[in-house]
Amino acid sequence: MEPTKWRRPSFSWSWLGGVAFTFLIALLGYLLAKVPGFDHVGLLACAIILAVIYRQFFGYPEMIQSGITFSSKRLLRFAIILYGLKLNIDTILHDGLGLLIRDIGVILFAILLTMWLAKLIKADQNISLLLAVGTGVCGAAAIAAIAPIVKSKDEDTAIGVGIIALVGTVFAITYTILRPVLPLTAIDYGIWSGISLHEIAHVALATAPGGEDALAVGLLAKLGRVFLLVPLCFIFMYWMKRKSDGQDASGNKLEFPWFLIGFMLMSLFGSYVLGHSIPVSDGFLQGVSTMTTWCLTAAMVGLGLNVSLRALRTKALKPMIAMLITSICLSILAYFIV
Q1: How much is the average pLDDT of 214-240?
Q2: Which residues are CB-neighbours of 162 under 8 A, at least 6 positions away?
């Protein structure tokens, strides 16, 4: 009797196994984020840390590659589309136009300064660009949205998301420590946080101790930066098209980021339909927000599994230095323009 030959699992099992695996690591990241000390780091960063650690000890799970790729590509785009529901366009256009002007200045400052510093210290240009956009706009979501447009490698995207989550958390905690000694009103403190911190979660973390007014205006200022993500992505699309004459390095036509259209449609739907023509409960919106977070976290796990620590050491240090300097300068600038 001949010995049974090992056979590669079918595509369906590989797909299901890979998607389930990314959600399993996401769950472990969720549990890690509940541990004191890690609770300020956040779910995304904890999940990416675990994914990177798994890759270093056990290698990349080739048997379930199709599902992991699905999470890091398709699930990521789906999460960005759902993320559009967090953006209330009506509120921004009615109450945040003044903040929007400052948001534009912040984004331009962050991108230009980071890229100039990256060139000066000879940092990796792709990771630096991702960090520049993440710093200027809205952290991990901005990096995830811009990465496919600029043809970023999964490894570079994961490195960028990990750095932005960790550094942003440090800045948010620093803001809460400085708040009692700064000569700022609750409103001014909220604006300062909203136009300078990296993620929506970081703004919420920093402004919550300042009271409801600080939290509300901080989130409004931050959502203005999220609103600007769409036009920024189209600017980068135009830049990439001009740079490559409409083709990528392999000669293929540049792919249109259809998920941005989905992001815009969900923003419009959430702003003018949900709660107006279609009444919904707060529980429903919270459920969608939770699903968005889990999908984004699973996608980040898929990206994190592509990270090599050797690459992290050699490629990430200089871009992180450029981003840190920019973040400090941005905090100082935002303080004086509040």
Answers
A1: 88
A2: 45, 48, 49, 52, 304, 307
